[in-house]
Amino acid sequence: MEANKTKTTTPAHGKTDLLPVQRPIPPPVMPSKNRNMCCKIFCWVLSLLVIAMIALGIAVAVVYFVFHPKLPRYEVNSLRVTNLGINLDLSLSAEFRVEITARNPNEKIGIYYEKGGHIGVWYDKTKLCEGPIPRFYQGHRNVTKLNVALTGRAQYGNTVLAALQQQQQTGRVPLDLKVDAPVAVKLGKLKMKKIRILGNCKLVVDSLSTNNNINIKASDCSFKAKL
């Protein structure tokens, strides 16, 4: 009886077929709940900011087209020097009186002049004197004249006074009159948040003689609003 024979088949060319190696598939990464919450909060805040900016733009456009806001205008009518001299400590003492016309050109906007406003007179970079702007309400298309007393002391009085006297000999003394006025705007019955009216009037006067009429030869004023 013949023994069982096992038959082995050898692939051609001496090669052995290999089964492909299957790599393990990593489990899907689930997004973190905290990360999702942060994204939602960020999108929510961003949406609120966009809505607020759009609403603010619409409000500004409505105010502009309905009320046509304009800045108040100011004119320097007169300037009078009541005192200008050297003190014992060699500082310069100055006392001026200035009359200013304030005009509200708005037809539907009133202006509240609040506490803390002031007017100052400067020569070059030296402040000679300063005085407060009174509190008052200015109605629609109103014209108000303000008479403000200014007082002050400046260091290096001899130097400043000598420079002023030298300019006075030419008949042209350059001065800067600066206005800083905190105001609140009234739209109808609504009183809005305070803003500041900043102004600078470049003046040229013929002299600074005390208790004499001073001729304002030139006046160039510019104003802007600051939130």
Written description of the protein model:
With 227 residues, this protein is of the alpha+beta class. The protein has helices at 33-67, 157-169; strands at 73-86, 92-103, 109-113, 118-123, 126-132, 136-138, 143-154, 173-187, 190-205, 216-226. The strands form two sheets. Strands 3, 4, 5, 6, 8, 9 and 10 form a seven-stranded antiparallel beta sheet that branches. The protein has a three-stranded antiparallel beta sheet with strand order 1-2-7. A hairpin with a 5-residue loop joins β1 (73-86) and β2 (92-103). It is elongated and about 105 Å long. The model is unreliable at 1-7 (pLDDT under 50).
Fold topology:
Elements: H1 33-67, E1 73-86, E2 92-103, E3 109-113, E4 118-123, E5 126-132, E6 136-138, E7 143-154, H2 157-169, E8 173-187, E9 190-205, E10 216-226
Antiparallel strand pairs: 1-2, 2-7, 3-6, 3-8, 4-5, 4-8, 8-9, 9-10
Domain Late embryogenesis abundant protein LEA-2 subgroup: 100-197
Membrane topology: Single-pass membrane protein
GO biological process, one term: defense response to other organism
